[in-house]
Design goal:
The chain has a nine-stranded mixed beta sheet with strand order 2-1-10-9-11-12-13-14-17, sandwiched between helices. The protein folds into three domains: 320 residues, ANL, N-terminal domain (Rossmann fold, 3-Layer(aba) Sandwich); 105 residues, Luciferase, domain 3 (Roll), CATH 2.30.38.10; 124 residues, 2-Layer Sandwich (GMP Synthetase, Chain A, domain 3), CATH 3.30.300.30. It has 15 helices and 28 strands. It is of the alpha/beta class. The longest helix has 19 residues.
Length: 586
């Protein structure tokens, strides 16, 4: 029976202050900690001490060096497996740039996945793609026209030849992190050893204050920055053991995540809001002790306060404390983390008036009890390694509670976007500032994120936030709908049409009609804009590689006629058919 690695490394704790990733692994390999992989039966099916990880990675690095030139881009299908973490670190030892790539979504369109992987291999100028036997035939089919060789993720079929690998130095690259957007061409974020190590140290020493007593647990995918950096590189660079499971295992059995934390006395974990919501909904009274969990981080998407409250209510009697929630803000271009709320404080919710938000781009407290409200969550103070500014459309710094675009400067920022034939295109302007595309406001010294600028809808001079429609719909329908997506488009007559799509679990027509009326009434009451509402099939709304809703992809698919109500929809029948509206409109 495989047993998990120790929670105690036996080493003096070093909080990520290394010059390169491979040097961090070399140090961790002197201790007793490592990475553990769990299956759906709550069993450890594989366990790697950092010593074993280092030895296997060095051996694979020699094989890679014998076959590929130093600096080659190596695509890695990022399964939650020992082979992935070994191959990723082998690239660091071999001086080759790893490019983690997503797995096919359980309910996603296979053609969309094939298109994404084909574009990534082209954009990243990959020398090879490495994958497991489960996906090999699919990957070989995708890259056949590009004549890219495909090898096993373990490296077993690379041959016996080896060469002396030359590891990355501190001033060299590390990996390509592909952004999770799914409708535009994928962007390969060019992370360097310096940017990665700067952010890892800031997370470790300042954001989460990691110690040698911490143990981390995760179900986040390794192809996403929060999974790769936050829950592989950060624990490795802190000599901490990690307990992990695949996202698909978590989706089937979310209670496994909490059970592993309880049994192994995990202290740090992270999830988007929906992970906490799923765990609370699926809890069936299992015996747990979550008093060990000092950081229950929230990141990767907009924070839903009612979901966190539900999780705390369900698991509070089992030792979980609401103050363990740590709201944060981050993005792959910044390696990962940008800001954290203070530890042991818990989330701070800011209630603002919806009318001022829509018409004045200001986040003010409701002026009277009758005004509709919107609740945002503060994401904390920026890490000291970042300069942050919030600017309006004219480029001027905004006043407190005025909404503008978030701008960043600092050593954690990636070098740029890599595109084959063009090299690395800088992220930042001539003064070193990166425009994030995120909108937010200052709340005292903390940043509050209100959404993405590209998702913001305009109607009769009002700013309409898609989350407002989506969250009101989900609250009105409860568990009867899964996901909702809001967006707008320009109709043939030049007017703007706001759309709301929702995945409905219910098949009975009468019940569906009641759900429809409840949602329409609630959204019109709260948001106050005319809109068209359509039920769509379960699992049909597109998501990004990190599991977030992709509104832009939903818009394209709806306008192409691919997202339709499986039942009759007579409401707003005067609207043109989506097939007769340009997908580029709006």
């Amino acid at each position: 029976m495989t047993t998990p690695t120790s929670s105690v490394s036996g080493l003096d704790h070093v909080p990520g202050t290394f010059r390169t990733l491979w040097q961090a692994l070399d140090y961790a390999a002197q201790g007793q900690t490592g990475v553990n992989f769990y299956n759906s039966e709550t069993a450890v099916y594989a366990s790697l001490t950092y010593t074993e990880l280092r030895d296997r990675a060095r051996a694979l690095a020699g094989k890679l060096a014998a076959r590929f030139q130093r600096g080659a881009h190596i695509g890695l299908i990022a399964e939650t497996s020992p082979d992935f973490v070994v191959s990723f670190m082998a690239c660091q030892y071999a001086g080759m740039i790893a490019a983690p790539m997503s797995l096919p979504a359980a309910f996603g369109r296979r053609e969309t996945y094939k298109w994404q992987i084909a574009k990534i291999t082209e954009t990243a100028a990959l020398a090879t793609v490495m994958t497991s036997a489960d996906y090999r035939a699919l990957i070989e089919d995708i890259v056949a026209e590009q004549s890219i060789p495909v090898f096993d993720l373990s490296g077993d079929d690379l041959g016996e030849a080896t060469a002396e690998p030359i590891a990355f130095e501190a001033d060299e690259p590390s990996y390509l992190q592909f952004s999770s957007g799914s409708t535009s061409e994928p962007k390969g974020i060019f992370a360097t050893q310096q940017s990665v190590m700067a952010n890892v140290h800031a997370i470790s020493d300042e954001g989460l204050k990691i110690t040698g007593k911490d143990r981390m647990a995760s179900w986040l995918p390794f192809y996403h920055d929060m999974g790769l950096v936050g829950f592989f590189l950060v624990p490795m660079c802190n000599q901490c053991s990690l307990d992990c499971m695949s996202p698909s295992t978590f989706a089937r059995r979310p209670g496994l995540w909490l059970r592993v934390i309880s049994e192994n006395r995990g202290t740090i974990t992270y999830s988007p809001s929906f992970g906490y919501g799923l765990s609370a909904r699926r809890y069936r009274g299992e015996e747990l002790d979550l008093s060990c969990l000092r950081v229950a981080g929230i990141g990767g998407d907009m924070i839903e306060h009612d979901v966190l409250a539900r999780f705390a209510d369900v698991f509070g009697p089992l030792g979980f404390t609401h103050n363990a929630f740590v709201a944060s803000y981050g993005m792959a271009e910044a390696t990962l983390a940008i800001s954290f709320v203070p530890l042991n404080r818990g989330p701070y919710y800011d209630t603002v008036g919806l009318q001022d938000l829509q018409t004045k781009s200001r986040a003010e407290a409701p002026s009277d009890g009758a005004q509709k409200q919107r609740i945002f969550t503060a994401c904390g103070v920026p890490l000291s390694s970042f300069d942050m500014a919030i600017r309006n459309a004219d480029g001027d710094a905004v006043a407190s509670r005025e909404i503008g675009e978030v701008m960043l400067k600092g050593p954690c920022l990636a070098q740029g976007y890599f595109r084959a034939g063009k090299g690395v295109e800088p992220l930042c302007d001539a003064d070193g500032w990166f425009a994030t595309g995120d909108l937010g406001y200052w709340l005292n010294d903390e940043i509050v994120i209100t959404g993405r600028s590209k998702d913001l809808m305009l109607w009769n001079g009002k700013n309409i936030w898609p989350q407002d429609l989506e969250w009101v719909a989900q609250k009105a329908a409860g568990t009867q709908i899964s996901r909702a997506a809001a967006f707008d488009f320009r109709k043939e007559d030049g007017t703007s049409q706001v759309m709301l799509l929702a995945e409905c679990r219910v098949k009975d027509n009468e019940v569906r009609e009641k759900i429809r009326r409840d949602i329409v009434s609630a959204v019109r009451d709260v948001v106050g804009v005319p809109f068209k509402f359509v039920f769509v099939m379960m699992h049909s709304l597109p998501v990004t590689s990190s599991g977030k809703l992709s509104r832009s992809a939903a818009k394209v698919r709806y306008l192409e006629g691919e997202l339709t109500d499986p039942y009759a929809d007579n409401e707003d029948a005067d609207l043109p058919s989506p097939k007769h509206v340009s997908a580029s409109a709006g």
